[in-house]
Amino acid sequence: MRMLSVLVSLATLFSSLFLGAFAVQGQSASRPYVLQQNWGAYAPYFPLEEYIASPQGCEITQVNILQRHGARYPTSGPGADIASAVSKLQDVTTYNDSSLDFIRNFTFNLGTNGDLVLYGAAQSLAAGAEAYYRYKNLISQDNIPFVRASSSERVVNSATNWTYGFSAASSLTFNPVLSVILSESANDTLENSCNDIGSSDNETDTWIDIYTQPIVARLNGAAPGANLTSTDAYNLMTLCAFESVATQAVSEWCALFNEDEWESFEYEMDLEKYYGTGYGQALGPVEGVGYINELIARLTSTPVNDTTQTNHTLDHSPLTFPLNRTVYADFSHDDQMIAIFSAMGLFKQPSVLDPTKPNASRTWVASQLVPFSARMVVEKMDCQLSTGHVSDSDSYIRILVNEAVQSLEFCSGVTAEGLCAVERFVESQVFATSGGDGDWAKCFA
Q1: What CATH number does domain 2-73+114-197+277-442 carry, 3.40.50.720, 3.20.20.70, 3.10.20.310, 3.40.50.1240?
Q2: Known catalytic residue: 334?
Q3: Distance between CA 243 and CA 250 in Å, rounded?
Q4: pLDDT tens for residues 343-389?
Q5: Going by fewer Cβ within 10 Å, which terminus of the chain is more open, N or C?
């Protein structure tokens, strides 16, 4: 017990110190530029705001946590692409810029199978401990968190690390376990399942070709004969992120790119998510319908009603889909979380994202939506809210994404504190409750 508690404490400290290591003073002293917050979906988790306690007169009665896996190594395809770009630079005879000298002795030894890095494991440990401290009043021996995960190894490991952190924070009094692993080769509300979904390649390739031109010219000038392409430049930027989270220190590769270039890198990730499973993808939001219908079932204590990617066998059993728990924790991937946000109506943009020019006022920013270990939390609460001279007692929800309370404009009667009556939330989710307006059938045309 003592060893596990120490690990959780170290994980929490480790996480805060690592994030602090990337703070770089920018143009505004009140809003510093932070390198890692421009890594899109490869950014380490960071809270967008300080957690706000439930409003006066409200008592939290149920919590649904949807969390992305922790920081990882690159997967096989991107890993090979990174290695190829590095090899081009190492094959050069002479560098014209001393900032590249470190490349001579650089060894690309990151794993390439998408496994969690140590920091990624620490993220989930710390998140589990945080969940216990924040919601421990909802926990008893007869009511411990119910935990599910999609079947990818990094997702399963993140879920189990979360349970360890929760258990350790409770001094091993409450010991949740990973109860359900949803196979990614079958119906799975925690992973993309739409066969005929489109790609974001056109949009991301367009932007990469635009913003990397100065980078390619600069690096090829500094390393004559390297013949780097726009794709190589992009892959070297991802190496900065992957090596940093793997070694818990700022990679030397990061310094090869300036602040403007990192902001452009972020925008590529924004486009990838927006046109991958977000609002810019015709069949993107429908992939989030199943999870939303499961969420509605939990909030209303009614059976799951879904015609998309839910596993009916699991969801119809009280053993594998109980409706009487106070804390639920589900572990997933970034693309699936984006689909869920989009299906629900979160982070809508006034206009589509332009692949040729970023909109500085956009709220669709991948590092703020789905960094490594991102989480969406849906808190259900009983509230006594005064409305004129009448006091109404009802059930409400509040949704937080990476600690930021969402305004829920799609919910009729939402309060200034982001409270949406449960029945109004259900009414707002017509896309989900209608089975995606027929879009799910288009996934298998």
Answers
A1: 3.40.50.1240
A2: yes
A3: 8
A4: 999 999 999 999 999 999 999 999 999 999 999 999 999 998 665 43
A5: C
